[in-house]
Amino acid sequence: MARILVTGGAGYIGSHACKALACTGHEPVVLDNLSQGHRSLVRWGPLEIGDIADASCLDSVFRRHRPDAVMHFAAVASVGESVGNPGLYYRNNVGGTLNLLDAMRRNGVPTLVFSSSCAIYGSPDAGPIREDQSPKPVNPYGASKLMAERILSDFDAAHGLRSVSLRYFNAGGADPEGEAGESHDPETHAIPLLLMAASGRVAQFDVFGTDYPTHDGSAIRDYVHVSDLATAHVSALEHLLRGGSSMTVNLGTGSGTSVMQLIDAVERVVGRSVPRRLQPRRPGDPPILVAATDMAGSLLGWRPRFVELDDMISSAFAWMERPVAEARTARR
Ligand SMILES: NC(=O)c1ccc[n+]([C@@H]2O[C@H](COP(=O)([O-])OP(=O)(O)OC[C@H]3O[C@@H](n4cnc5c(N)ncnc54)[C@H](O)[C@@H]3O)[C@@H](O)[C@H]2O)c1
Q1: Residue ranges of domains in the chain
Q2: Is 173 left (phi over 0), alpha (psi -120 to 50) or beta?
Q3: Contact 145, 93 (CB under 8 A)
Q4: How many whole angstroms from 271 Cα to the centroid of ligand 1?
Q5: Which of 22, 158, 211, 220 has its CA at a distance of 20 to 30 angstroms from the CA of residue 104?
Q6: What is the helix, strand, coil percentage profile of the chain, to 5?
């Protein structure tokens, strides 16, 4: 059993990781500033409200809880926003990570699992993306994640601080038992936006790009279930706790879904049509992003379990349709 400080643990993926930690006998302690997170998603351990930019808050949390390791989810994570407000992204995602690593060193915490992103790859050629593909981020969000990866690698070389960087592709779905799910404000992710359009919560879904060189002209992405991401974090943590060395791995399913296929799946699951508006491509949106997954399998022994797209969508829909009182609490 290990005690893990989970930054951003009140958010979408971090809350699922806390559940996976608790289910495998570990003890999550959440640190979150609640800028996007929800108090009600912190169900598996204590919540410390604070910011990773605040060194004295970090020292106090480390001193009081004495974690064995850190899982670092806290970040701002919207590509579009990062283009208009790069300072926020570099300050929070790069400066915040550096601040956290300095606090880990001061408090003798030797290992960290980091939320990286396929956004570091930029617009690669089609075909499964391998971890050794040279990263060329095309927006400040992707660049901030790549800079944080570089800092982690330098901290290992200089100070022996070991880390696993997990490059997620597109997270989707919700906890199959309905205990956690996605509630961003504003929402920018395709699955919740499609569900909102299908159920009349928003007027329509914007399809950005219908002339990509793909089978139906829309962009292709690799959707990986959030509960699978959570179990990968536990595998990465246990690798580090066993003394394993630093590594960087993709987390995806290895299969691609086009926006049009996603719309069909949402219509199948919800039983209603999705009103849509066809829009031009957005700058910096690559045609195809699909992960090569063999490294996560061979190095972490991780394979996604929830690979059926319809199951991913129905878990997300069940979360969105949960009773109103519960949903209101989750928005706080
Ligand atoms: N959702 C995806 O598809 C996806 C894909 C690739 C990578 N990621 C990365 O995974 C991580 C989690 O993403 P998510 O979708 O769960 O996002 P989220 O916004 O739901 O969770 C992030 C959490 O971090 C908290 N936070 C932000 N800045 C903070 C700070 N300075 N101090 C303390 N807490 C802070 C927020 O309140 C929020 O609870 C992020 O690092 C993101 O970049 C997400």
Answers
A1: 3-169+223-251, 190-220+254-330
A2: left
A3: yes
A4: 31
A5: 22
A6: 40, 20, 40
Domain 190-220+254-330: CATH class, spelled out:
alpha beta
Whole-number Å distance, alpha carbon 207 to ligand 1 midpoint, is: 24
pTM for the model? 0.96
Please list every protein residue whose CB sits less than 6 Å from any atom of ligand 1: 7-8, 10-14, 32-37, 51-53, 73-77, 92, 96, 115, 117, 168, 170-171, 184
With tokens 């969000």, the residue in question is 141
- 72 CA distance to ligand 1 centroid (A)? 9
Question: Which of 12, 88, 94 to mutate to test ligand 1, by most ligand atoms within 8 A of the CB atom?
Answer: 12
CATH architecture observed for domain 3-169+223-251: 3-Layer(aba) Sandwich (3.40)
Domains 3-169+223-251 and 190-220+254-330 share a fold: no
Residue-wise pLDDT for 24-54, tens only, equals: 999 999 999 999 999 999 999 999 999 999 9
Q: What is the best residue among 29, 38, 61, 73 to mutate for testing ligand 1's pocket, by most ligand atoms within 8 Å of CB?
A: 73
In angstroms, rounded to a whole number, what is the distance separating the alpha carbons of residues 104 and 238? Answer: 18
